[in-house]
Amino acid sequence: MNYYVIGLQRAEQRLQDRIAHLKDGGFDAKPFYGFDGSQIQLKPLPYPWDDPNNTNYFIHEKHVGMNLSHMALWRLGLALNESLCIFEDDCVLNPHAKGCFDACFGLLPNDWDIFFPAHCCVGNSQRQQISGMLYRLFSIPYCTHWYCINIKALPKLISQVQLVDSPIDIALHKRFQGVNVYAAIPRMAEQLNTDISP
Question: What is the pTM for the complete model shown?
Answer without folding.
Answer: 0.93
